[in-house]
Amino acid sequence: MSMTTLQPSMPGRPVLSGNALAIGSMITWSAGLPAAQILLESWPPLTLSLARMLLGLTVLVPVWLLREGRAPLMRTRWGRALWIGALGFGIGPYLLLEAQKLTDPVTVALIVSCAPLIGTALELAAGTRRLTGAFALGVAASVLGGLIATSALAPAQLGFGALLAVLSTGIYCWASLASVRDLPGLSDVGRTAATLAGGLLASTLLLALFHAAGAKVLPRIAIDLRQVVMLLIYSVVALAVSQALFVAAIARLGVAVSTFHINVTPFYVMLIMLALGEPWDWTRALGAAIVASGVILSQMGVKRLA
């Protein structure tokens, strides 16, 4: 995918739909964080990651085939798709699960506030983004919003888990961009399914290595209905649906602007936890408002187009 053409930003349908897709992606992804926290009480992170990929693909592949038939499978660059998926959606999510195991779901959502910087750096390095004053202000507002929300955390919660979350975020941003850029001719569902197949392959190999090394790979308690429901939320909603929406947003907005929306996830997580009885947090609400202003600012000047 070429995104080198620059022209004044217009509030057209691709921009509006791209932002709507990014918002939907972040809401569905946020729904998976509390579910993952519950599952991590009894599931080893790598086993959970593998189960998540498998269930996600169980939904995505039939949808892909029903919508487009078998022809797209034949023209897919499977070597590239599997490599992108193995690194970005196999290794990356595993690191994020380890980070969440060491911290908590809100901390993970806040730590990934570096995503706009990573996304912008990727586009600048590729020469597909020109850094304008409005866009720079948008990046600053997005990061500031994330930092304001992060300030509510106790310093003890930051450490090795935070480092894993940052590393996972960088890998995820690269893989999401590469799935759009390096797999032309595929639909958003097709790109998501093909790369998640690589994630499943990597997760399977990692689990086999861990098992051979003597690590425990089975859930510590019997799987009940509550775990099944949480696993469906975490795999179908927060992976299959969320990633397909995010890939679609990147195709319309680019990875930099799409990742701005990641910094609103603490607010979405707070809303979910609010429904579960947790109190309202004005700090996270303020952070979300500042991030939203950054999204608007970033699209007022010059943008890159597909």
Automatic annotation (TrEMBL):
Entries under SUPFAM superfamilies matching the protein: Multidrug resistance efflux transporter EmrE
Membrane topology category? Multi-pass membrane protein
Q: Which UniProt keywords apply?
A: Membrane, Transmembrane, Transmembrane helix
Pfam families in the record = EamA
Q: What is this protein called?
A: EamA-like transporter family protein
Q: Which residues cross the membrane?
A: 20-40, 46-66, 78-96, 108-126, 133-154, 160-180, 192-213, 225-246, 253-276, 282-302
Does the record's keyword annotation contain Transmembrane? yes
Native source organism of the sequence: Ruegeria marina
Fetch the InterPro entries from UniProt: AA-Vitamin_Transporters, EamA_dom, EmrE-like
Spell out the GO cellular component terms annotated for this protein, sorted alphabetically and separated by semicolons.
membrane
Reading the lineage from the top rank, the first entry is: Bacteria
Q: Where is the EamA domain?
A: 17-148
- Return the similarity comment: Belongs to the EamA transporter family.
Per UniProt, subcellular location reads as: Membrane
